[in-house]
Amino acid sequence: MPMTGLPTLKWNRFEIAFWLIPIAAFFLFPRYLTLGSQILIAGLFALSLDLILGYAGIVSLGHAAFFGVGAYAAGLLALHGIISEPVVALLAAGLAAMALGFLTSFLVIRGVDLTRLMVTLGIALLLEALAERGPDSARTHQIMGEARAATGNQSSQSCSPQKRCRGVSRM
Predict the structure, then answer these.
(1) What is the average per-residue pLDDT within 18-45?
(2) Same domain as 159, residue 84
(3) 85 shares a domain with 139
(4) φ and ψ at 153, to 5 degrees?
(5) Is the pLDDT at 4 greater than 70, yes or no?
(6) What is the pLDDT of residues 157-171, one digit of tens each?
(7) CB 162 within 8 Å of CB 134
C-alpha cells in the first residue's frame, strides 16, 4: 500500500516557473535590478513573517528588527572596511540576526500570545534605540544623506542622530 501525504520529488510547472521568471528578469531587464532586489527583499520579509506566525505560531510585532540588525551589521562592517564582498556581508548579516534571535528566544518563548507580542515589540524598540545611539549613528546618517544626494533625492533636512532623516527607515 503506497504512503499518502508525503511530498514527491517531482517539480510541477508552477514551481519551475517560480524560479525561471526571476532568473529571466535578471537578464531581460538589467535596468530594473534595484526594483527586482526590492521585490525579493519584500518576499523574503513576507516569508519570515509566514514562518514565525504560521509554522511557529508566535505573534510578533518585532520580527522586522532582525532585518534591521542584519542590515545594520552589514553596513557597519562595510563602513569600517572589514567586509567589502556583498555575499560575505549577506552571510554576516544572517549570522548577526541569528545570534540576536538566539539571545532573545529565551524571552519570547516563555510567554503566551499577548506576552510574546509585547516582548517582541519591546525588543524591536530597544534595538532601535541602540541603533540611534550607537557610536556610528551620526556617520550612518551622513552616509544616507550622501546617498540621497548622489541619487538626486535632494533633501533640505539635515541628518543627525537626534532628528530622523527622510529615507532612513525605522526598524
Answers:
(1) 86
(2) yes
(3) yes
(4) -90, 85
(5) no
(6) 445 544 555 444 444
(7) no
Q: What is the pTM of this model?
A: 0.58
For residue 94, give its domain range: 58-171
Kindly calculate the radius of gyration of the chain based on its CA atoms and give it in whole angstroms: 20
Domain count, the chain: 2
Rounded distance, CA 171 to CA 123, Å?
11
Residue 132 burial (10 A CB sphere; 0-12, 13-18, 19+): middle
DSSP characters over the chain: ----SPPPS---HHHHHHHHHHHHHHHH-GGGHHHHHHHHHHHHHHHHHHIIIIIS----S-THHHHHHHHHHHHHHHHTTS---HHHHHHHHHHHHHHHHHHHHHHHHHS-HHHHHHHHHHHHHHHHHHHHHSTTHHHHHHHHHHHHHHTT----SPP-SSSPPTT----
Compute CA distances 115 → 99, 107, 122, whole Å: 22, 10, 10
Distance CA 1, CA 81 (A): 61
Sign of CA dihedral 54, 58, 59, 63: negative
